[in-house]
Write a structure and sequence with these properties.
The chain is of the alpha+beta class. It has a single domain, classed as Deoxyribonuclease I, Chain A. The chain is about 25% helix and about 30% strand. Strands 3-4-2-1-12-11 form a six-stranded mixed β-sheet. A six-stranded mixed β-sheet has the order 5-6-7-8-10-9, with no helix packed on it. Helix 2 packs across helix 3.
């Protein structure tokens, strides 16, 4: 005679099974990447940049200068690899996106202050834990605010503006209690005033962690010029960063940066 379970036992068995699946263990480490993919890249260079992403296979990816064309190519080629994504493509340099192998529980597309350059943040679900991720793009050094501005004047203005943008981001995340990852094209090196603001607020630089192989990221592999300045960065707070590396390949005028992330135990 087949064994029959009472309704209560069946319900308990079902609930235990669901709960067991709902909260898988957090991964011990995550791989992350930040990549400015160049808004004006032709189709063949887009594919070269996708080659880099596919080969590296980061768990969490921050994209800037994300265009409709790159978005379409990304979804076609890597959409199955990244079931969770928030992509906000734009013409020109204003597109931004986050793609993840783990569930994005909440995303916010917001204007940075000042100048309203777009940024994107997400809360990434990692089993019973979460990681806050921000993908940003600070003001370009040579961008002119007035037609009559010379290059040196524009660079001075934009250095001040980037510092204010960094201060605004620090205020935005001052009350975040858990681990926080800040990725992006900061448009300045680690000695810049905006980067000093992040450091003073407790953000650690991935390239200061163990097993780092870092250096200049612009101009990148898509340029005929050698790389001169380090302007793409992976920063973290209340987490451990290691294995940071500049990826010297792709079709952009920026090289991608990847790193390993370990959440606190």
């Amino acid at each position: 005679m087949p064994l029959r379970m009472c309704p209560i036992s069946l319900a308990m068995t079902w609930m235990l099974g669901v709960l067991g699946r709902a909260a898988p263990a957090s991964p011990p480490t995550l791989s992350v990447m930040t990549y400015n993919v160049l808004y004006s890249a032709p189709a063949e260079d887009v594919e070269k940049s996708l080659d880099v992403i596919e080969k590296e296979a980061p768990d969490i990816l921050c994209l800037r200068e994300l265009t409709p064309g790159f978005t379409k190519a990304f979804r076609r080629r890597l959409g199955k690899r990244y079931p969770y994504m928030r992509l906000v493509p734009r013409k020109g340099t204003w597109g931004v996106g986050i793609a993840s192998r783990y569930r994005l529980q909440h995303t916010v597309h917001f204007p940075q202050q000042p100048h309203r350059m777009p940024a994107l943040e997400a809360r990434v679900g990692l089993g019973s834990r979460t990681l806050k991720v921000a993908c940003v793009h600070l003001m370009a050094p040579g961008a002119k605010h007035r037609k009559q501005d010379g290059l040196l004047e524009a660079m001075e203005k934009n250095a001040v503006l980037r510092k204010k943008q960094a201060e605004s981001l620090v205020r935005r995340y001052a009350k975040v209690q858990g681990p926080l990852l800040l990725l992006g094209d900061m448009n300045e090196g680690r000695s810049g005033e905006a980067m000093k603001v992040f450091a003073a607020a407790g953000f650690q630089h991935a390239c200061d962690g163990p097993d780092a192989a870092c250096g200049a990221t612009w101009p990148g592999a898509g340029s005929v010029l050698p790389s001169l300045v380090e302007i793409d960065h992976v920063l973290g707070r209340k987490l451990t960063l290691s294995g940071a590396k500049v990826l010297r390949d792709g079709g952009s005028d920026h090289d991608a940066v990847r790193a390993s992330v370990e959440l606190p135990r």
